[in-house]
Amino acid sequence: MTAIGAGPGTTLVTGATGTTGSRIAARLTAAGHPVRAAGRKAAPVAGAEPVRFDWYDPGTHAAALDGVDRVYVIPPVGDPDPAVVVLPFLRRARAAGVRRAALLSASSIPEGGPAVGQVHRALPGIFDEWAVLRPSWFMQNFTGGHLHATSIRTEGLIRTAAGTGRVGFVDADDIAAVAVHALTDDRAPDTDLVLTGPEALSYDDIATVITEVTGRPVAHRQLSYEEVRDRLAAQMPEEFAAMLAGMDRAVAEGAEDRVTDSVQRLTGRPAGSFRALVERELRLLG
Q1: Helix, strand, or coil (residue 172)
Q2: Model-level pTM?
């Protein structure tokens, strides 16, 4: 690990209105750290300074980076090759004085793998102080605006190609807590961190927990890889839909059947359970 020297300066949070970005901005500002909240519409977030930022418009990048010394990076969603736009921005950030970067990737994508895996591989060569957060599937996929949450509310169904495979679903609040430590601790992690909840659950288990907590019947409907791919392709680029469906297939084969202690090690407290998340966000399942 390396030390950043002086105390934390201004943090640029990309995707600041999103699931993890909004939580990170809120935690940082609550702790007294100056935050620049970047988004396409420069919307105010948790007392942070809003700034317009578009990955595909380099003209928005200079203002976003002005006076910043660390950055939380959420690659553009749905882009099958985000390195094309993210890596030039990160090199520009380093030249502008940014010293530390925390990148949001995924447990299913290794260093050098597809999509954000290419950004992961390049990150240590750009910054001396860095972290790659590789969370498992978000628990909030079942309570927010995700396809699973929508189908739970409207049909009482969860559709996947994951079969009986298990996933160490993780609470976005825990991801945010780890990110804040990675961005502000005296020493950067200088590694990648696979983040999970305290137990691995199948989608059948997820449906059972939601049913027990809410009193509304929810079931898991198993689909084929092709059915999931085609369903997703109606809403996003075909290549990205195929990648997501492939992740379901990997879950069915056991690729995500694991838990880690990363949340406990970085934050000093245990990761939250899925049942606790559903009890806390019950209103969102209404």
Answers
A1: helix
A2: 0.93
